[in-house]
Amino acid sequence: MRGVFYSQSGDFLHWHTHLSARLPNLDLEDHQHTMDPEAVDYALVWNAPPGFYQQYPNLRAVLSMAAGVDHILSDPSLPDSVPVLRLTDAGMADQIAEYVALGALVHIRGMLGYLDQQRRQIWQSNENRQAQATTVGILGPGTLGRRAAERLIALGFHVLGWARQPRLASFEVHTGPGGFERVVEQSDILVCLLPLTKETRGVLNARVFERMPPNGFLINCARGAHLVLDDLRSALNSGQLQGALLDVFPEEPLPDGHWLWSHPQVMITPHVAARTMVDDACRQIADNLVNLAMGHNLTGQVERTKGY
């Protein structure tokens, strides 16, 4: 089978080396050097440009180089019949758990306030919250969300989850519109780990912030389009939200001069909450390529109608 590779970071040789170690007969070409588009059986991609797939008429599968697939599903040039495969975990669950735990601890220990005091050279102690008296709501308790919950529970936090459908978990998970409201209303800290779909776009908005307990905290390490930034600014300036930790943004890199760069109640990171561990990712990709070649079941296949 022949594959085409596309990644905005241009790390073809790195991925090719790791995949070749598992698939000695690997036939994978960078998109800039693909000789015969009609001979391409699969695409290994991250953030391919719109219309990318229409040049490969015989695609049998598209494989994402990370857990997210919205960058694939948003391209109308991809036929509905082509399976889309995402990575499951690939070392990302532990990283997300660490990031969420970091954000939760930043909030209850008032670290954003102390950083602001440091900039202004103010020596002053402030009240702390206790983890045991703090509820964290996780929107999207899938593989990543469950690992984050485990880490938070170990630190003493009370954790709730919300999912579109019932899920088995070691903590309380709500479903449906009513369940969403109940989780939001109890969440001192709200964590977004949802897939980006038509239904979840803009889900972090003024209505949600208003229903959270006062002085809440937001952690978004899912997708930038989940968050309505103007609503976040209003919630921060009004005091409804005390702070936010953001790893993803509608436009990346974050533009120069954007208000998020300098807001004292916001901590931002450049989409690094979880980096794909290439060796683990290549194990999953190699297994799927073997299964694809042999006509076996594929793992991590996305339900196109759901968007994840």
Fold and architecture overview:
The protein is α/β, with parallel strands linked by helices. The model has no long low-confidence stretch (mean pLDDT 96). The longest helix is centred in the N-terminal third of the chain and has 17 residues, at 92-108. It has helices at residues 12-22, 70-73, 92-108, 111-119, 143-154, 176-186, 206-211, 229-238, 278-294, and strands at residues 2-7, 27-30, 42-46, 61-64, 84-85, 135-139, 158-163, 172-175, 189-192, 216-220, 241-246, 266-268. Strand 6 (135-139), helix 5 and strand 7 (158-163) form a beta-alpha-beta unit.
Strand content: 15-25%
Main sheet: strands, sense, barrel = 7 strands, parallel
Unreliable segments (pLDDT under 50, ≥5 consecutive)? none
How many strands appear in the DSSP assignment? 12
Trace the largest sheet across and list its strands: 8-7-6-9-10-11-12
The number of domains = 2
CATH topology (level 3) name of the largest domain: Rossmann fold
The geometry reads as elongated
Helix content: 25-40%
Arithmetic mean pLDDT:
96
- Rg computed from alpha carbons, rounded to a whole number of angstroms: 21 Å
In brief:
With 308 residues, the chain is an alpha/beta fold. It has nine helices and twelve strands. Strands 8-7-6-9-10-11-12 form a seven-stranded parallel beta sheet.
